[in-house]
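Supplementary Text 2. Reproducibility record for the structural model of the 253-residue chain.

All settings were left at their defaults, and a single model was retained for analysis rather than an ensemble. We include the record here because the model underlies the residue-level annotations in Supplementary Table 4.
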Amino acid sequence: MLALEWLANARGIMQKIEDTQLENIKKAATAMADSIEKNHWVHTFGCGHATIPVEEMYPRIGGFVGFHPMVELPMTFFTGINGQMGIHQFLFLERAEGYGRAIMKAYNFDKNDCIWIFSHTGINNVNIDVALRAKELGMTVIAYGSAAEAKGKVTRHPSGKTLFDIADIVVDSCVPVVDASVVLKNHQDKVGPLSTLGFVTLVWMTITTVAEILADRGVKLYIHPSHNVPGDTTAQDRLDACLDEYKKRTSTL
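Retained model, structure tokens:
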């Protein structure tokens, strides 16, 4: 049963992350905690399905203030497939040199911020432009993706570098570079990709580590509560406090 084959592959990815990436996760989480403790930002960015981990982490129940999602609509909303904001336009934009630098012009950044970029292969121009501009501004650049598997892949960027070459901290998603993992008879291409599962696994391993570091330092976290639990009469007040804190911090962006 191919469902069980995919499940075994997914478990294998999660086990490999546990076996090989804990030290790198701690490095990334420490850099993020340093920024958040100073009331600065962890900016988060990705394209295509790599926006899913960005949207997963904040805002959502169990997430907390300190992460600033940078999601460009043309880079994520292509579920119409054809026509307006379709796949063809998306593929063009993620490979277009200069688009990432234009995105960076839309925000105010600080050298005490860091930026967390998700990219499976690390070869497309928009992510590399974002990372290079972040480095110019003095930010710590953190890249999550299939770094080991992407070695040897030719970057599309004129700098000659991949995202993983540029980043200060790299955490490997441990996903095969082909992404899809299950062989289907009578077909050349596999089904059952793993990169989203790898990214989301790493998101919560990282953010729980950030929370642990900050709590140990005595930093108050503004955590989004569940507002659907019967009997929790203060949930809305706690959520409002989170959103007020986020609004206050974003006034500088």
